């Protein structure tokens, strides 16, 4: 009997399509549930069902599945909170910009033989999300993925801050001097020495997604090789422009795919 039912389902495209649609809709409701808990943690099933306009039985089934998987936690009052599974997933998930940037970063590190990094803007700090070291120079600057620094210090930070809202940028700058940011916008890149580490030069150019700055591409090198800066800047700016185009294309295709 089961074989006959399975055979009928496989041979009936309409049934398969309807089943896939139901699965996709349930998955979408599950994601909406998690997003609602992220917006306002500690909600009951009834509260989530009302906000999402869900049948309470459907909401209960979705929440039970998420709870069983560790995506949500339930307290003694029957309220649900985001669970440890999401933390584990976030910890092991690479930044999307770092995925798109990987070939550009690798090529730039090979061409310049210096340390190349990508930083993202996160809560008024810049966070290193990708890094590739030069292979030949024994003297190089080491940066760890996950390293954070204020947006007001360092080339990778300033290359982002220069394209943020001026009033917000002024609040973040230690000196309150916007002339440095204006110079960065004029030249298209940031150049700092010794702001993060002594005897280190930082060069960085912004990465855009359309008109919005989303991060920066940087080259860091020892001050002992300062004579290389003029040669490295064109390489950096060209690579950041290519990366901006690639990331914008990637996000645009992602939105188009989600709408289809």
What does this structure look like?
The structure is a single chain. By secondary structure, this protein is α+β, with helices and mostly antiparallel strands. 53% of the residues lie in helices and 19% in strands. The protein contains ten helices and eight strands. A six-stranded antiparallel β-sheet has the order 5-4-3-8-7-6, sandwiched between helices. A two-stranded antiparallel ribbon has the order 1-2. α2 (13-39) crosses α4 (56-69) and α6 runs antiparallel to α10. It is elongated, with a radius of gyration of 24 Å. The protein starts with a helix and ends with a helix. The relative contact order is 0.09.
Q: How is the topology of this model organized?
A:
Layout: H1 2-11, H2 13-39, H3 45-52, H4 56-69, E1 72-74, E2 80-82, H5 84-92, H6 96-112, E3 115-122, E4 125-132, E5 148-150, H7 155-161, H8 166-172, H9 179-187, E6 190-193, E7 200-209, E8 212-222, H10 229-259
Helix pairs in contact: 2-4, 3-4, 6-10
């Amino acid at each position: 009997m089961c074989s006959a039912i399975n055979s009928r389902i496989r041979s009936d495209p309409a049934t398969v399509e309807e089943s896939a649609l139901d699965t996709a809709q349930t998955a979408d409701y599950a994601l909406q549930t998690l997003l609602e808990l992220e917006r306002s943690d500690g909600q009951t099933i009834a509260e989530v069902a009302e906000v999402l306009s869900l049948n309470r039985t459907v909401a209960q089934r979705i929440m039970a599945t998420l709870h069983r998987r560790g995506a949500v936690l339930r307290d003694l009052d029957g309220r649900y909170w985001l669970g440890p599974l999401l933390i584990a997933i976030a910890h092991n998930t690479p930044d999307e910009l770092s995925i798109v940037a990987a070939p550009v970063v690798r090529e730039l590190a090979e061409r310049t033989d210096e340390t190349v990094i990508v930083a993202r803007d996160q809560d008024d700090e810049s966070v290193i999300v990708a890094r590739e070291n030069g292979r030949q120079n024994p003297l190089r600057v080491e940066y760890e993925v996950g390293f954070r620094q204020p947006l007001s210090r360092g080339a990778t930070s300033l290359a982002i801050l220069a394209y943020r809202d001026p009033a917000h940028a002024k609040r973040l700058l230690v000196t309150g001097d916007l002339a440095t940011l204006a110079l960065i916008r004029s030249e298209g890149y940031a150049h700092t020495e010794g702001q993060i580490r002594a005897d280190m030069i930082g060069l960085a150019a912004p990465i855009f997604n359309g008109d919005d700055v989303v991060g920066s591409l940087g080259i860091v090198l020892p001050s002992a090789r300062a004579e290389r800066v003029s040669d490295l800047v064109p390489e950096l700016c060209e690579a950041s422009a290519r990366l901006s185009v690639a990331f914008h294309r990637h996000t645009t295709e992602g939105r188009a795919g989600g709408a289809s």
